[in-house]
Write a structure and sequence with these properties.
Blueprint (H helix, E strand, L loop, with lengths): L1 E5 L2 H22 L4 E5 L6 H12 L8 E5 L1 E3 L10 H8 L11 E2 L8 H14 L5 E5 L20 E4 L2 H7 L13 E4 L2 H5 L3 E6 L5 H9 L17 E6 L8 H15 L1
Parallel strand pairs: 1-10, 2-3, 2-6, 3-5, 6-9, 9-10
Antiparallel strand pairs: 4-8, 7-8
Length: 264
């Protein structure tokens, strides 16, 4: 596992955007096969998406040969609802880049058969060639996607019931009303994420400090689903100074020293 520490969320977000663009460009230079990208929602990736939009506009990267799959969607929330993840992704990324509409995949939270929707989604990922890179965030309790604490590290795309903590955190997107937050969601599983060739997780702010401590220094456990990244051969956490506040001093120094050595 690599841990990239930047002074601020803005610097970390830009680092992540440039890293993703570099990976897309590297594959494009080698093959005509599409780059398969996993994407997340929430406030954390917004600055990364803004930089990617700028880079597309400047001709520094193109999404014309990118196939994307989003990690989750609420159950029962209309697609046109401003807080649906369909709406979020089009607002903050898709409507401003050159990715073909046919290449965009988001789980259908209104599917008549949610289990069948999840199975089809997992199959579509495999048929696309599997993720080249998965961009994710992390919850305050260490969850990735909607894989709440005690989700199996072997889980795949499925229907989940959201915890009260998650619904309370997300209430800020629903006029602060906990009762407006859907009780269920469709989500890729921990194993779905970890099957990616590369995983990049964004974690910014002091509220993510405990989650990072558990994920980086704690045991690999379903208690903190992000800890599954410990077993990934190419996992990276991009964070800021606030989010690493609970790491041991020697852990912090180690990750800074590794990055410095690799940059030379």
């Amino acid at each position: 596992m690599k841990v990239i520490i930047r002074n601020s969320a803005a610097e970390g977000s830009i680092w992540a955007a440039h890293y993703i663009a570099a990976r897309i460009n590297e594959k494009a230079a080698k093959t005509s096969k599409p780059f398969v990208l996993g994407l997340c929602t929430g406030s954390t990736p917004i600055q990364t998406y803004a930089e990617l939009i700028r880079m597309v506009g400047a001709g520094e990267v193109s999404f014309k040969n990118v196939i994307s799959f989003n990690m989750d969607e609420y159950v029962g929330l209309p697609v046109e609802h401003p807080e649906s993840y369909h709406s979020f992704m089009h607002k903050y990324l898709f409507d401003q880049i050159d990715e073909p509409a046919a290449n965009i995949h988001i789980l259908d939270g209104n599917a008549p058969d949610p289990e069948a929707e999840c199975a089809a989604y997992e199959k579509a990922i495999v048929e696309a060639g599997g993720f080249d890179l998965f961009l994710g965030g992390v919850g305050e309790d260490g969850h990735i996607a909607f894989n709440e604490p005690f989700s199996s590290l072997e889980s795949r795309t499925r229907v989940v019931t959201l915890t009260q903590d998650t619904r309370e955190v997300n209430a800020r997107f629903f006029d602060g009303d906990f009762n407006k937050v859907p009780k269920q969601a469709l989500t890729v599983g921990v194993a779905t994420v970890l099957s990616s060739k590369e995983v990049v997780i964004l974690a910014f702010g002091s509220k993510k400090a405990r989650a990072l401590k558990d994920a980086i220094e704690g045991p690999m456990s379903h208690y903190c689903t992000l800890s599954g990244l410990q077993g990934h051969p190419a996992g990276t956490i991009v964070c800021d100074e606030l989010s690493v506040g609970e790491l041991k001093v020697n852990s912090y120094r180690y990750f800074k020293a590794v990055e410095e050595a690799e940059s030379k």
